[in-house]
Amino acid sequence: MILLMRPRSFLLCILAFAGLVPFSLFAQEETPYILNGSTIQESCNCYQLTYDQMFLAGSVWNKNLINLGESFNYVFSVYLGCKDRYGADGIVFVLQPVGTNLGSAGQGIGFQNVSPSVGIPIDTWQNFDFNDPPFDHIGIFKNGDLHVGSSNTLAYPVEVLDNNANIEDCHWHTFRIIWDATAKILSAEIDNVRRVETHTDLVNEIFSGRPQVYWGFTSATGGQSNVQKFCTALTPDFTTPLGQNFCAPADINFIDQSTSFGKVTNWWWEFGDGTTFQGQTPPPHDYPQPGYYTVKLNIQANNGCTSDTLRRVITIGSIPDAGFNSSPKIICANYPVLLSDDSHVQYGTVNQWNWDFNNGSEHVQTKDSTLVKTFPLGNMQIGLVVHTVEGCVSQPVSKTFDVSEKPTTSISVHDACYGDPVTLSATNLTPSCRFVNGSGILTTDK
Description:
This protein has two helices and 36 strands. It is mainly β. 2% of the residues lie in helices and 45% in strands. The chain has four domains: 231 residues, Jelly Rolls (Sandwich), CATH 2.60.120.200; 83 residues, Immunoglobulin-like (Sandwich), CATH 2.60.40; 80 residues, Immunoglobulins (Immunoglobulin-like), CATH 2.60.40; 35 residues, no CATH class. The chain is elongated and about 105 Å long. Strands 1, 2, 5, 6, 8, 9, 10, 11 and 15 form a nine-stranded antiparallel sheet that branches. It has a seven-stranded antiparallel sheet with strand order 3-4-16-7-12-13-14, with no helix packed on it.
C-alpha cells in the first residue's frame, strides 16, 4: 500500500558518499564544473540534470571551493519541466564541504543525508512523510534533512512562485542565491521576488568553523519524472539614462546592465544602422534620422561562454503633426464640448496634449487624448501642441470657434377634436441664435 500511495518513496536515497557506491563522474577540463549521474552539458553554461525518466540522479558541482567569509550573489536560470501533476522531484542548490561526487535519486533530490550541508530545494512533489505542502515549494534546510518542521528546517517552505502553486510550467525562471556574510543572512529569490531567508551563521553553526565549501546543484526523479535544468547566468542587457531624448537627431547613451555568474570579459554591440562597437560602454551613438532600429548585444564571460543575442528595438522619433476635432461641431455657450485628438506621427507615440485657450488665457496639460470643456459666449481660439514618448514636440495648431448662445424654443398648439389636424408652431426665444421659425400639421390619435 505504501508503494501505491508514494510512487517514488520506495527508492531509498543512495549516496555516492562515505564509501557507498558512487554515480559515474564526468569532469570537463574546460569548465570549473564536475558532472555526475544523468547530467549532460547542453551548452557552454547550461546543464540538464535529469531527463524525463524515472529513478535518475544528476548533480553538478563547481570544483573550486568558495569562502563563506565573503558575500556572494549567484544568479541562475532554472527549468523544472512541463509535467505538473505527475512531475517530480525538483532541484536543490547545495553548499557542502565533503566532495564533488554526491548525488542520489528519489525524494531526497540528491541532498538527503549530505552532512554537513545547507540546501535550498525547489521541490515539485508532495512527500507526505516529509510533511511537504501540496504546492511546488522552496525552503532552506541543513544537513541533508528535508523533513519540514524538523530541527534542520532553517526556513519553512513557501510557494516557489509568488501567488502560483506550479513552477513546472515549461518556462525558465530566475533563481538567485544571496549570502550576506556580514549580516549572516542566506536568502533565495525566484524571478526577482524574495521567497525565503534564514539568519544563520553558516560557518560556525553548520560547518564547524570551516568557511571553505563547494556549491552545486543536485536533482532527482523517482516514481515520477521531469526534465530539470539550470544555467549559470549569462544575460546581456542594457538601458538608457532616465530622461534620455529619442527625438531625431538623437545621441543615445547605452548603459550596460548585463548579468553573468562570472566576470564579463567582452561586449559586442550592433546599433541597427550598420555600425558596431566592442566594449562595455559605447560612446553616445548618433541617430540622425527617425526610424525603428534593432540594437543587438552579446557578452562573453571569463569561462569562455558567449551569450545568446539580445535584440531590442528602439524608436528614434519624428516630429508629430498636431490636430483635433470638436463634438459637436457647433459650440454653444456653457454646453459641454468634447475635444478629441486627431494628431499623427510617423515614428513614435503621442503621450501628452497641451491645450491653449484664448491665446494663452488658459492652459491645460493632460495625458489623455480627449478633453471635455465648456466655453463662454463669444469667439474662442483653441490651440494644441502634442508631445511624444520619444521627446518630439509638434508645431502648434489652432482653430477659432464662434461660441453661440444655446437656443431655447416654445411650441404652441390649439385644442382639437379626435382625428382633426393640429397645427404646431415653434418660436425662437433666443433672438441672438440663428433659428428658423417653423410650423407643422399633426393629426391627433385620440
